[in-house]
Amino acid sequence: MRTCRCRRRSFTGCGPASPCPSSPSSAPFARPGSCTTPPRSWRRGQAASRWSTASSGGWSTRRGARPSREPAVTAPTSSGPTPSRPPRDRSPRCWSGVEPAAGTVRSWPSGASRPPSGPTRCCARAPTRSSWQRRPCTPHCSRSGFESSAPPPWREAAPGSRPRSRSQVSFAGGAALARRMRADACRRARDTLTRVRWLIVLPFARPGLMGVDFGEELSRLGHEVRLFPYRRNNLFYKNTPTKGAYQRLILRRLERVCVDWRPEVVLVIKGGPITPEIVRRVRAKIGARFVNVFPDNPLWMIPFDCLEAYDIFFTKERYALRCLQSVGLRNLHYLPMYCVPAQHHPVTPTAEERRRFAAGVSLVGNRYAYRERLVRALADWPLRVWGGGWPGVRDPAVRRLVAGGPVFGRDKLCVYAASILSLNPHHPMNDIVGVNTRAFELAAAGACQVTDDKEDLTALFKPGEELLVYRDFAELGRLLDHYLARPDEGRAIGDNARRRALAEHTLRHRVEEMLSVIQERCR
Fold first, then answer.
1. What sign has the CA pseudo-torsion 409, 479, 316, 185?
2. 402 shares its domain with 329
3. How many C-beta atoms lie closer than 10 Å to residue 376's C-beta?
């Protein structure tokens, strides 16, 4: 009698001479040789998995199982009568990525760059009671031998007060509790997910851009990451006659990299030239999962057949999510934008920096028609503008408000720090109900931002306490007049926004949620 790696039960014939019956290719996050189906006790409770078939043909209780209230059943001997209960299939089903003894995520040997290929077999290590109690299926689960000393959140109470019931939570603090339990689930997914290979396909591989920060965060979590930029700042991509040929070359190179390096997950950022054909062809060859994180509005910036090709498509735009789900797409998931605390934080400008970047109201962003219209309407306020395209504007009323070209890094943070108010108008066609990235950047930098009203803002920040919201130019003017005369109130709003951003809206929070969704949908 041997015991499978999955720490579930004893069985006959699983050892060095018997391969594991589960297929390692059935899940993208399973190490070859490990199964992917959770133990049956996690789905049905303790009673469904109390028994296992021993080598003698009788029944035996699982080692470490909790006592049951059911009547005891005497194990029949080899010469005794055949038990009336018919035997069932007791093939081992391993839980991938968990070491039985320690209950931690497995890692490959230090000298191996990837898991061994070829047929693999189950080990004969016996499970221990501590390994069964290591990781429950929920934060306060007590089923199937799991024991948790922490009380459930609805029973927690302040000192001197009575514990709350479930019904009380739904009326008092239910939203905060739901956010906390959601964060706990994301952290558990991060801790239990096997470390895998990620190929990140992104427009540019410059530090600080979206995609590069995902790679850095996944690397900190122990994953192996490689970047594949598909634009690379060359003239062939920008030139219309050569753009098609260059994209075909990039797709052939991407397929070759995937086949040679064999990533388990291909994370695409936007992915303009990535066609559905290349996604299906690579998936058929190596079994990789394709995931897209789209920072813009997918309704008018990506073809419909490209949306369908991905296993999971993350979007910040709830309106687009509802529209696409109404026509049958089920691979979409809402994922707001984020801030990176290492890049977005308060700074103290020097005297020279304050002289260069001081402003009553600042606007950082490239020149677009809707922004130019806003700047023209605010010509009577102390507004200064930084961004690409502004120095070439022809309107003299707008040109005199332009302070410089694009700002990055510390210069951008100095603009936020040296301004009393920071404008953040959303694109009227790109951000329909969603919130753009700059809202989280300004919040993490401690700036008092003034932005136009969006449907998702109330779920991410508190208007009036963590940011200022306007619905038309008249209301915007009243806000500017009020807070320019009271800069201390603006600084308090910026401090509140920073605390909220660091608590709920960092890149780590988004990566944890992404891993949770991938583990749930791609198991």
1. positive
2. no
3. 13
The pairing of beta strand 197-202 with beta strand 224-229: parallel
Residues 121 and 201 in one domain: no
Transcribe 359-427 into DSSP letters: EEEEEES---HHHHHHHHHTTTS-EEEESTTGGG---HHHHTTEEES---HHHHHHHHHTEEEEEEPPP
pLDDT tens track of the chain, all 523 residues? 444 444 444 444 444 444 444 444 444 444 444 444 444 444 444 433 333 333 333 333 334 444 444 444 444 444 444 445 455 444 444 433 333 344 333 334 434 444 444 444 334 333 333 333 333 443 444 333 333 334 444 334 444 433 444 433 333 455 566 566 666 665 555 555 578 999 999 999 888 899 999 999 999 999 999 999 988 766 777 677 788 888 899 999 999 999 999 999 999 999 888 999 999 999 999 999 999 999 999 998 899 999 999 999 999 999 999 999 999 999 999 999 999 999 999 999 999 999 999 999 999 999 999 999 999 999 999 999 999 999 889 999 999 999 999 999 999 999 999 999 999 999 998 999 999 999 999 999 999 999 999 999 999 999 999 999 999 999 999 999 999 999 999 999 999 999 999 999 999 999 999 999 999 987 6
Q: Say whether both 125 and 197 belong to one domain.
A: no
Same domain, 26 and 44: yes
Angle among Cα 43, 46, 50 to the nearest 5 degrees reads 120
Same domain, 400 and 471: yes
Token code pair at residue 289: 């999962």
Q: Are 306 and 426 contained in the same domain?
A: no
CA atoms within 13 A on the CB side of 350: 4
Q: Amino acid identity of 216?
A: E
Cα(76)–Cα(6) distance, rounded to whole angstroms?
Answer: 27
Cα–Cα distance list, 67 to 11, 61, 143, 144, 441 (Å): 21, 10, 12, 10, 53
313, 368: one domain: no
Provide the token pair at 511.
């990566």
Q: Which helix (H) or strand (E) holds 313?
A: strand 312-315
Q: Which helix (H) or strand (E) holds 245?
A: helix 240-261
**Domain boundaries, position 426:** 351-504
Task: Say whether both 130 and 201 belong to one domain.
Answer: no
- State the helix-helix crossing angle for 473-484 and 487-504, rounded to 10 degrees: 110
Q: Is 33 exposed, middle or buried (0-12, 13-18, 19+ CB in 10 A)?
A: buried
Given a contact cutoff of 8 angstroms between Cβ atoms, the answer to whether 345 and 444 are in contact is yes
In a domain, 279, yes or no: yes
Is there a domain that residue 393 lies in?
yes
